[in-house]
């Protein structure tokens, strides 16, 4: 491969508001080559997550070369590194990538095969791109962090409260929790988000702008066994402390600048744990390949009709204008499900 080959991408030099015309730009960057266990993937579709918007608005530095964001993709394996054993050129794949490597908003992308899954056969590339980051997050939160049993019978009578149930992670978490046999209480505050969470399988809906405990009691549940928080940990802390069952478990994916009073959990002997799906690839953990396995499991469940994609909006092509639009929509806090963008526009960069 020639070292001067380039590819189209969407990148940034400055960390600016989404409505700024230079917040995300159409750029040309060097086309990478795979080494080790890396796959070179031809990107067919991407989706946008809150992490994209947080990174874009994260600091005031100026990049010397364009920084490419994006942590969700589906595509076709173009080339494999010499040490690859899981995939071959031509395989259709989907994955979320690593926060410490260049992102997926580019025509070609390098990713370690240990965090890549086979694309669900029953979905097109765009619908598949909606799934990886949220599926990994929900799966790890439920099974690795909260310790939910995979045995349906063991979860009879157990309840989980999912805060932010209509978002991307919540939409998958509801489905996985129902497959595990849990009773699911989702939080939402608008009729359309409540309806979406119900369509994903939530048994009950409560309003996250009100105290949880009275609403949980009103549906005949004294305490919840598990809580999975995807929206403002500090704001909901007191309600979570009240609603969690003695010896229950709380998991959050939302960091906070405010201190959390963990001693409030002491009398109930409650476990609190964080989930970040980037932990395994960021630290190259010895169990990193578990993300490959769980993505394949998700694909199987999709293909068997037991799970469904959470795509709710699709844009085309993949370019800076559409990515700026997508970032602004996510930051408006009204997005339900997942937004995906498919297909690179091959017109020249202006």
Could you explain how this protein is built, in words?
- This protein has 350 residues and is of the alpha/beta class.
- The protein folds into 2 domains: 190 residues, Quinone Oxidoreductase, Chain A, domain 1, CATH 3.90.180.10; 140 residues, NAD(P)-binding Rossmann-like Domain (Rossmann fold, 3-Layer(aba) Sandwich), CATH 3.40.50.720.
- Helix content is 28%, strand content 27%.
- The protein is built from 10 helices and 16 strands.
- Strands 3, 5, 6, 7, 8, 15 and 16 form a 7-stranded mixed sheet that branches. Strands 11-10-9-12-13-14 form a 6-stranded parallel sheet, with helices on both faces.
- Helix 3 crosses helix 4 and helix 3 packs across helix 9.
- It is globular, with a radius of gyration of 20 Å.
- The chain starts with 5 loop residues before the first strand and ends in an 8-residue tail after the last strand.
- The model has no long low-confidence stretch (mean pLDDT 95).
Overall spatial form: globular
Give, in order, the helices and strands: EEEHEEEEEHHEHEHEHEHEEHHEHE
CATH topology category name of the largest domain: Quinone Oxidoreductase, Chain A, domain 1
Oligomer: single chain
Low-pLDDT stretches are: none
